[in-house]
Amino acid sequence: MTDSVAGLPPLREVIAKHGLAAKKSLGQNFLLDLNLLDRIARVPGPIEGAAVYEVGPGPGGLTRALLKAGARVTAVERDDRAMPALAEIGDAAPGRLTVVAEDAMKIDEATRLGERAHVASNLPYNIGTALLVRWLTLEAWPPWWLSLTLMFQKEVAQRIVAPAGSDAYGRLSVLAQWRSTPRIALELPPQAFTPPPKVSSAVVHIVPAPAPAGVSAAAIGAITAAAFGQRRKMLRASLKSLPGAIDALAACGIDGERRAETLSVAEFVAIAAAWTAAKR
Question: Which of 81, 58, 64, 31 minimizes the C-alpha distance to 190?
């Protein structure tokens, strides 16, 4: 490879040169440690020649690491201040970086990319969970993404991988686990970032798994939204707002006096399947 990404100036110099102080309004916390960034870029496995989608690259630290690993990167950034820095990275890796100046929440990724891609991103805190839920609740499966390697606040990461019955277990756990496999790949302290956030962070890696037959993402979404929307209540109360859900609960032989956090992912899938079948 003839590009010169490794020869780019230190990220702190880039931030100073382009006036890229992190903006709280954009949920920005920049990771500047190149060794940590290289470790994150390795989480998806070999990505040489692969398409990678990145949201919120900022000064381009992770972008550099992904390009060094040989990926072709499409980076979505709404902060105009970052464009000159990202252009310099693009010049160092000719033909392998596409920068999209749009709102990531409004992009049709499958159409934009035109191929299946890995996602790797230090997600802006203010849209991270919303983006993840959107990617997890696509009806088309396997999805457009090959894997998700995403930075979250540690508390959110723990919710994604939490087992049933644990304090962190909730709707996000079920959405992440019913047809994909999540794991925490890396934990990072606040001081790894500029500016340091008030909480620790973690990188979550998620890969698609076979989807259960007869269950739609819409059904899982509706059942979990109702069940965890009033998580302190028994299921017979929390699911009452969803026509047919109580009957589905009975059809699965699940006690209506249980609470949402006690149900396994498989039990939520069974309820969604019974609810879907009853409506046909």
Answer: 31
Write out pLDDT tens, residues 57-116: 989 999 999 999 999 999 999 989 999 999 999 999 999 999 999 999 999 999 999 999
Task: Check whether residue 272 and residue 179 sit in a common domain.
Answer: no
What is the total count of domains within the chain? 2
Phi (first) and psi of residue 62, to 5 degrees: -70, -35
DSSP strands (E only) in the chain: 30-31, 51-55, 72-76, 97-100, 117-121, 145-153, 180-188, 193-194, 201-208
Residue 232, domain CATH: 1.10.8.100
Spatial distance between the Cα atoms of 88 and 85, rounded to a whole number of angstroms = 5
pLDDT digits (tens, 9 = 90+) for 7-37: 899 888 998 898 877 666 666 678 888 899 9
Task: Select from 208, 243, 260 the last residue of a domain.
Answer: 208
| Cα(219)–Cα(248) distance, integer angstroms | 12
DSSP 182-242: EEEEEEE-GGGEESPPSS-EEEEEEEE-PPPTT--HHHHHHHHHHHHHTTTSBHHHHTTTS
Domain of 229? 217-278
CA distances (Å), 104 to each of 1, 67, 126, 129, in order? 30, 20, 12, 13
Q: Are both 155 and 235 inside the same structural domain?
A: no
Check if the beta carbon of residue 7 is closer than 8 Å to that of residue 179: no
- Predicted TM-score (pTM) of the model is 0.93
Please compute the mean of the pLDDT values over residues 131-137 and round it to a whole number. Answer: 97
